[in-house]
Design goal:
Family: Belongs to the ATPase B chain family.
Number of domains: 1
Order of helices and strands: EEHH
Radius of gyration: 64 Å
Region (Disordered): 65-97
Structural class: mainly alpha
Largest sheet: 2 strands, antiparallel
Subcellular location: Cell membrane; Endomembrane system
Distance between the termini: 180 Å
Strand order of the largest sheet: 1-2
Transmembrane segments: 16-35
Oligomer: single chain
Pfam family, one: ATP-synt_B
C-alpha cells in the first residue's frame, strides 16, 4: 500500500477511497433528497413572487384606470350639475320676468278698468245732478207759480230746498 505522509500523519489510499466514495454518495443523497426540493421550493417561491408582482402591477394599472374613469365621470357629473343649475336659473329668471310682466299687465288693465269705472260713475253722477237740478228747477218754478211769495217765504222755501238737497230723493 501506498502511504501519504503529512507531517506526522499517514493516510491510506483505502481510507481515502472510502472517504471519497462516502462523500460522493453523501453528495448524491443531498442532491436527491435536499437539493431538488430546495431548488423546487426556491423556484416556486420565485414564481410566486413574480406572479405577485405581476398581479400587483396589474391591480395598480386597473386601479389607475378605474380612478381615471371615476375622475372623468365626476367631471361629467359636475358639468351636468352645472348645466342643470344654469338651466334652472334661466328658467327661474324667465318665470320671474314673466310673472313681473304679467303683474304689470294686470296692473295696467286694472288701472284702465278703474279709470273707465270712474269716468262712468262721473258721467252717471253728472247725469243724476242734471236730473236733480232740472227736477228742482221745475218744482221751484211750480211752487213759485202757485204761490206768490214774500221775502220771508222765499227764504224759507230756498232753505227747505237746500236741506232737501242733502237728503236723497225724499221730496222727489
Amino acid at each position: 500500500m501506498f502511504t501519504f505522509s503529512v507531517v506526522g500523519a499517514q493516510l491510506y489510499y483505502g481510507d481515502m477511497l472510502y472517504i471519497m466514495v462516502s462523500f460522493l454518495i453523501l453528495m448524491w443523497l443531498i442532491k436527491v433528497l435536499a437539493w431538488k426540493p430546495i431548488t423546487k421550493m426556491m423556484k416556486d417561491r420565485s414564481d410566486k413572487i413574480a406572479n405577485d408582482i405581476d398581479s400587483a402591477e396589474k391591480s395598480k394599472a386597473d386601479a389607475s384606470k378605474l380612478a381615471s374613469q371615476r375622475q372623468a365621470e365626476l367631471a361629467n357629473t359636475r358639468q351636468e350639475a352645472t348645466g342643470i343649475i344654469n338651466d334652472a336659473k334661466q328658467t327661474g329668471q324667465k318665470q320671474h320676468d314673466q310673472i313681473i310682466e304679467d303683474a304689470h299687465n294686470d296692473a295696467a288693465n286694472m288701472k284702465v278698468a278703474a279709470e273707465k269705472d270712474i269716468e262712468q260713475q262721473r258721467q252717471e253722477a253728472l247725469a243724476n245732478s242734471k236730473k236733480d237740478v232740472a227736477s228742482l228747477s221745475i218744482e221751484i218754478a211750480s211752487k213759485i207759480i202757485t204761490k206768490e211769495l214774500n221775502a220771508d217765504d222765499q227764504k224759507a222755501l230756498i232753505d227747505s230746498y237746500i236741506e232737501g238737497l242733502g237728503k236723497p230723493n225724499e221730496s222727489r
